[in-house]
Amino acid sequence: MSLKGLSAVVTGSTSGIGQGIADVLASKGANLVINGFGDAAAIEAQRADLEARYGVKAVYSGADISRPDEVKGMIDLCVSSFGAVDILVNNAGIQYTESVEDFPLERWNAIIAINLSGVFFGAQAALPHMKKKGFGRIINIGSVHGLVGSTRKVAYIAAKHGVVGMSKVIALETAGSGVTCNTICPGWVHTPLVQKQIETIAANEKISIEAATEKLLIEKQPSKQFATPEQVGELAAFLSSEAAGQITGIAIPVDGGWTAQ
Length: 261
Description:
- By secondary structure, the protein is an alpha/beta fold.
- The chain folds into two domains: 7-187 and 228-254, Rossmann fold (3-Layer(aba) Sandwich); 188-226, no CATH class.
- Helix content is 50%, strand content 13%.
- It has helices spanning 16-27, 40-54, 68-82, 105-133, 154-174, 192-205, 209-220, 229-240, and strands spanning 7-10, 31-35, 58-61, 87-90, 136-141, 179-186, 251-254.
């Protein structure tokens, strides 16, 4: 499955799931715009490594995904660098856990801005380019929490349910155009975001990190194993291919059986 000659934007790709997706897309031959926050030297090393290992071109955008003008600039960078934006992976996300009644307004606003509005900004900026070319793949990284609920994650779950719905609208509006839009819904993937939740469980319940990890997995994910960023990346690569041309508007869990319960 080759993506040679295609160009991709992957938001939030300097760590975690996004980094795994960027790596897999590059391994299939796609040129990349990577995006995210972090140490400048580490980001440059990642960018250069993608080029060296896979023989592709990679550029970096520091766009703040909550700002529509910066997101548009990121899409424009992809077009000016590579001639097109063929694949957009809306992956950037943040998390905060608290009960509904105690949930801070500023945290609500930040999560909705990045996890939901940022997806809209990316799709809105990319769609004209994709429709003009007659080919495009918008892949939104949702969550199992876009399909089911859990306590203490009201903003994240509201945003991820919104992403699943938004993907359906985009799929319907682009049907027959050569553009598709789908949502990947990971369960527990061992990323820095999830590690913070594990550490919170350990601190609150005064248990070890190992015991907190086991508790996190057993409670929700029947496989009792983390999914990997690379597994999510391979699914994104398939959805980007010609073989997936008639797959649009769906939400695909990668959750070790979580939503089968």
